[in-house]
Design a protein that fits this description.
single chain; 495 residues; mainly beta; Maltoporin, Chain A; 18-stranded antiparallel barrel; two-stranded antiparallel sheet; 22 strands; disordered N terminus
Length: 495
Amino acid sequence: MNRNTTLALCAFALALPSVAVAGNADVGGYFRIAARPDLQGGDGKLGYWNLYGRLLNEGPYAAVEMKWDILERDPATRAVWTSLHAKVEGGSIMNADTGNGTLDNLRMSQVYVKAGNVALDRVTWRVGTLDTWFGQLGLYDMWPTRLFYETIGVSANYQTDWVDLLVGVGDSGYGIRGQDYDTILTPGGSVRFSLGNHLELGLGGEYRHEPYVPGNTKSAYHTPGVLYEDWIRGEVVESWVEENPDLLDYFPDPEGRDAHSYKAIGYLGFGGLGPIRWNNLFANYQRLHPESYTTESYGGRDIDIYVHDFTDQRYQINVGNELQLILWPHRLEAVWGVLYGRYWDDDNSIVPTDYDRTFYSTVLRLQAFATPTVHFLGESSIAQEISTNGNAYREHWDSIFTNSGGASDTRGLEFGDSDTRTTWQGKVGVVLNPLGPGIYTRPSLRLLYGVQYSNQHAAFGNAFVQSLDQFSDFELPEEDVHWHHLVALETEVWF
C-alpha cells in the first residue's frame, strides 16, 4: 500500500465518528505506546519475546478498524443485511521505535464484506480477508486457534444459539509467498458449540495446497544434489564449483514439487463458576508451509537454491491455557497463563534453529483495586526453552569464542555453549484505569518496573558485540549480563 493510499484511508477513518451517530458506522481500534529508557544497552523491551508475558516485552502498536453498515441489520428479523469492514494497523509510532511512525510501517490488514440471510437464513457470507479465531491468550498476546490468517477468499458462517459453523476457501499465495506469489489453495473450517453460558467447545482446521505448474518460475521446486549442511552454511555454489570446476553454467536445474501444509485447532472454554470468570484452553497442531528458495552470490552472480525438500517437514504443537479469577470482588483479580510448545524439523538434525525446540512457560498476574480507578499490578513469569539440535544460547560474555566443551570452533554449527535458556521476569507498578476495576479494562495508564534474570548472557534485544570482527572494534565489559531492569511509562487503550 503506498503512502497516498494510507493517508486517504486514515483520513477517512478519522472522519467516520461524525457519521457514526447516524447508526450506520462504527470505528474501533487499539493503541499501545511506552517510554522505556534502557540504560543497559537494550531496545526498551525486558526480554526477547512474549513467552515471558506480553507486558514490557512488546513494542508500540496502533490499529484502527472500521465497519460500515451498507444495509443495516435488524436482529429481530431475518432480513438481508450487509456491511463493509476495513482495518489499518502497524507496529510503529513516532519517537517510540526505529520506524519512527512512518506510514510505510502501516498495512491494510483486513478488508472484507459481510452479507447475511442472502440465499440461506442464519448464514453470514464473508468475501475478502478471512482471518478468524476462537479466542486469545491475553497474557501472551497469542492466537493459537487462528485460521485463514494469510487467506483471501469466501466463507459462510451458520449461527444458532448453540452452534457456530464456519466453512471457507481461498488463496494464501500472497500471504505466504509475498512478491514470489504462487497459488496456494486453502480450504478449511471450524465449529464451536455453546453448551449454556458456562461451557464452549471448538474444533477446526485448514489445508494448504500449492500445485506445481510446469514453467511457472514461482512454483515450488527443489535443487537436486544439494547437501543440507552446505545450504545451512551458504556454501552450495562454492561446493559445486569445487567439485565441478568451470561448470557453473551447468549448475543443476530445479525439480518441480507439489507443496502441502495444514493446521488443526481445538478449543475448550468454561466459566461463571465460583471465582472462575472464564478459562480458555487452546491447542494447535500444524505442518508449516515449505519455503521457496534462497540466493547465494558467487563470482559476481546470484544463484537461486530451491529448498522445498529442506523445509517441508517442519511441525509444531502449541498448547495454551488462560484462567481468569475473581479472588475478591471489586478488590483483587488474577489471570494465570500456561504455554507449551514442541517444534521439530525432520529435515534437520545438525543445526539449532527455532524450528527444533521445546518451550514451557507460566505467567501469573495479580491486580488489586485500591480505588475504582487506582490499581496495583504484580506479575511474575518463568519460562524454559530447550534447543533439540545443540547449543543455541550463549551463557557468558566470551561464548562468542566457544562452543561445546569450551572449544573454539569457527566451523561449528552451534551458536553458543548451552542448549537451554531459562528466564524469569517480575513486574510491579501502579495502574490508572478511568473505566474502573478489571485486569483487562482499558484504557490503562501504567508506571511499571520490570526485572529479568536469564541464564543466557544479555538475553534481551541489545547492541552488544555479536561477532568476532566486532570484538576488537568496540570495548566490551568482561562480565556476564544476566539481569535486565526497565522502568516504563506506558498507556494502552481499546476503543
